[in-house]
Each structure stands twice: as structure tokens, then as C-alpha cells.
Design goal:
about 25% helix, C8orf32 fold, 20 strands, alpha+beta, single chain
Length: about 425
């Protein structure tokens, strides 16, 4: 649902004057002061750290490259050479803390190389503004809210509402619809914004002043989770499953952050949870091999074993469902009514390719009829093909709407229930006829 501060009444008591950095109680004047201070802070940073010639030279940009191609390269280079403190692993944070004395100062007199420091996100965004401007682009800082907590209310005279930083870039003179908003240092593709910042509304900061800026959500085609799984039935009455899940864009981003900040002990449990460890599924492998690389796509490798009803009993017919921990959870809304809009973090697409291997002595039956479901919220498609080894299952589930009005709640629940029911489709194996003696 929307942030609690939006859907419930609240009283905010605060002082103007001594306890605030801005003393003007007129909203227009207040936010004008915020913009001026932010631009002055940015200008000072660029002056002290610029002109960024060495960094730009290290990017090895092609001389004939177009401006936005250069901005793409600069974005990737900065992500690879600057460490966002909000994405630091627990080991990195612990090492950083051990290097400080009781007053928070570095114990060593030798300064740590800049590219190895854990930096606040603002500095990474400010450096990207400086580099983009040096490359010939128009670049500005955007102050954004954490929309999980609240939306930006200009009538509330508190700059603390806008505690996130993004960057808008465009070619000189381009109109607003040609500008692109990016999130330097967060390990996301160029133009993909962290889910807690968009869709929302932010404050664009320029030398000429500030203005509202709409922060658009991500195209679902950029948020794709792809799973490849193999399920093999054994003689002991169970199924051994192995699967690999990779994410693009926002898919897996939250999980990566959770894993990175967890202690090594808690990280192991978190990985088991992501692989679906439960009383029925014994997980033997749960790994995220690219965890050390902030810019790498989400990747999860799992193996496990679970019991299959009827397997190992010598039945003439054996029905096996293809769903399991390798299928991402489908949203479940248990309440029959809804008062507020549904707000997903972002729209997404899930794609799964699953091989169900026939147990020894069995052969696949005719394949189930393909299923395709279309709705205003997204789509679902399932196809099952019999092969020499068993079945090949292909599943595609897309949620293209990130915000859904409460009036559409019933229709949304019906669509998601159709998806869950179809996911419970079973493939059937029949005992193969005995061969010639």
C-alpha cells in the first residue's frame, strides 16, 4: 500500500527557526533555499575534486563516441571504481570500523585510496554530475524521497523528506522528455532507479532554481528474473532439483543488498531461505557466486531434495507438479476487500524453463494443453512439451502494473489465483511397457 503517512492522518509538530537550517516559513522560499544550498554544496564538491581529467582518461572513451554512449561508459566506470557505503558487505563495514580509533578517525596516517573508501551515495552522485558536465552534458542533482516512508510534501517544511540523490542528464538544449534520470553507484543499469525512489516526485536542482521532477518507474522488460531448473525423480521416492536464477534490473536487487549486509553466519541462513529451505525441501546447495561484485547481476544457485507423493511405490501412473522453490512466489491477497491501492515495488517479468526428468521405467504421457491468461495487470503463459527424457516446461509471468487502484482489487485477485492454480498443473508419467526378454 502507499506509505502510512499518506493513507493515515498524522500530526507533525516541528520548530521553525533555531532547530532548522532554513528559517523561512513560506514554502516557495523554503525550497528555494534548499535548492540554493544543494547547488552550492555540489559546486564546492566539483571545484575541490574536479576537473576529473584522470578519471575520464581512465575510461578510455572512443573519440567519436556519442555523448550518451560516453555517459553510459562513465556511469559503469564510476560504479566499478567507487564503493557505495549503503552496499558495503558486513566484512567491509567491519574492516572500516577496525581502521578507526575511538573518535572515528583513521588509525593509519596514510590516507586510504579514494576508490577503496566506502562513500556516502551523495558523493558518488556528485562526482557523476561533475564528470557528465565535463563530457559536455547538462547534469543536475535530484533530491528524492524514500517512497516507502512518505511522498514529498512541499507543504511540510522539512528537507529531511528528500534524503536520496539521483542525477538527471541530457544533451545541451534537449527538452525534458529527452532527459534520463540515473542512480550512480547503486549497481543498477543505466536509467534504472532503486525501487524505493521511483515512481515518485523529486526536486530538480539547477543554478537557475528548482522544480518538481517526476521520477518514473522501471519498464517491466528491464526487471526480469530467469530460472533454469532440472527435477529428477529417484528410486527413493523423492526428487532432486537443481536450479539457477539470474536477475536483471530490480529483480534480485533487494536480495543482493540483504545478503551483502548480513554477517557470514546470517548470510548462510538467508541463502537457504532464498533457495526455499523448509521441512519438505532439504537444501544441499545455496550460493550467490557474484555477491562480491556490486555491479554483477543477481545470481542464485540452488540444489535440494524433497519427497514426491507416490514416487518409489511402483504405481502405474505418477503425477508430478513442476512448481517449487524454483518458481518465484505469486503475490497472495487473502483479504476479500481492499481499502487502499496496491503498490508493488516495481513491475516485473518472471521466466522459467524447467526440465522434469522421467523416473526409471516411466515415460511421459501426452502433454497438458498450453495455457495463456491475459489481464489488465499482466499476463501468464504455460507450455509443457513431452520429450525423450520427460517434460520441458516453459513458464512466463508478467506484472506490468506497479500501482493498482482498490477498485480493481477483485479482478487482480482472480488473475493471481488463476496463475497459482495453473502453477499447480501436474505432468503425468506412466509405467513404460516392459521390453522384449
Amino acid at each position: 500500500m502507499p506509505p502510512t503517512s499518506v493513507v493515515r492522518a498524522e500530526a507533525l509538530l516541528y520548530y521553525s527557526g533555531f532547530f532548522l537550517s532554513k528559517t523561512n516559513t513560506d514554502p516557495n522560499a523554503f525550497w528555494k533555499d534548499v535548492v540554493r544550498d544543494e547547488e552550492e554544496r555540489l559546486t564546492t564538491f566539483i571545484k575541490e575534486n574536479g576537473p576529473f581529467d584522470d578519471s575520464i582518461a581512465a575510461m578510455k572513451l572512443a573519440g567519436d563516441a556519442k555523448l550518451f554512449d560516453k555517459l553510459h561508459v562513465a556511469y559503469a566506470w564510476l560504479g566499478a571504481h567507487r564503493r557505495n557505503a549503503m552496499l558495503g558487505t558486513s566484512e567491509e563495514s567491519e574492516a572500516e570500523a577496525e581502521a578507526d580509533d575511538e573518535h572515528g578517525r583513521k588509525k593509519s596516517h596514510a590516507p586510504e585510496p579514494y576508490e577503496k573508501r566506502l562513500l556516502e551515495p551523495w558523493k558518488i552522485a556528485a562526482e557523476y554530475v561533475g564528470i557528465a558536465r565535463a563530457l559536455g552534458a547538462e547534469a543536475h542533482m535530484i533530491l528524492a524521497p524514500d517512497r516507502r516512508d512518505r511522498y514529498w510534501d512541499p507543504g511540510l517544511l522539512s528537507e529531511g523528506q528528500l534524503d536520496e540523490r539521483l542525477v538527471e542528464v541530457r544533451s545541451p538544449g534537449d527538452p525534458d522528455d529527452r532527459a534520463i534520470v540515473v542512480a550512480p553507484g547503486w549497481g543498477l543499469p543505466f536509467g534504472v532507479l532503486p525501487y524505493w525512489m521511483a515512481p515518485s516526485k523529486g526536486l530538480l536542482v539547477t543554478k537557475e532554481g528548482g522544480r518538481d521532477d517526476v521520477l518514473r518507474g522501471t519498464d517491466p522488460r528491464l526487471n526480469v528474473l530467469e530460472t533454469r531448473a532440472s527435477i529428477a525423480l529417484d528410486d527413493a521416492g523423492g526428487a532432486r532439483a537443481a536450479w539457477t536464477t539470474t536477475g536483471a534490473g530490480q529483480r534480485g536487487f533487494r536480495e543482493i543488498r540483504r545478503l551483502r549486509v548480513s554477517s557470514p553466519e546470517n548470510r548462510k541462513k538467508a541463502l537457504d531461505d532464498l533457495c526455499g529451505a523448509s521441512a519438505s525441501l532439504d537444501v544441499s546447495k545455496a550460493e550467490a557466486p557474484a555477491l562480491d561484485d556490486v555491479n554483477a547481476a543477481y545470481r542464485l544457485e540452488c540444489e535440494g531434495h524433497e519427497a514426491v507423493p507416490g514416487a518409489g511405490e511402483g504405481r502405474e501412473e505418477l503425477a508430478v507438479r513442476f512448481d517449487g522453490a524454483w518458481i518465484p512466489d505469486v503475490p497472495l491477497f487473502a483479504s476479500p476487500t481492499r481499502a487502499f491501492p496496491i503498490v508493488f515495488d516495481y513491475p516485473w517479468i518472471d521466466i522459467a524453463s524447467i526440465e522434469v526428468v522421467a523416473p526409471k521405467g516411466y515415460a511421459p504421457s501426452p502433454s497438458p494443453t498450453p495455457v495463456k491468461i491475459e489481464s489488465a495487470f499482466g499476463s501468464y503463459a504455460l507450455s509443457v512439451t513431452a520429450t525423450d527424457r520427460g517434460y520441458e516446461v516453459h513458464r512466463a509471468f508478467a506484472m506490468v502494473s506497479a500501482t493498482i487502484k482498490s477498485e480493481a482489487y477483485d479482478a487482480l485477485r482472480k488473475f493471481l489465483e488463476q496463475v497459482r492454480v495453473t502453477d499447480r498443473t501436474a505432468v503425468v508419467f506412466r509405467r513404460a511397457p516392459a521390453g522384449p526378454p
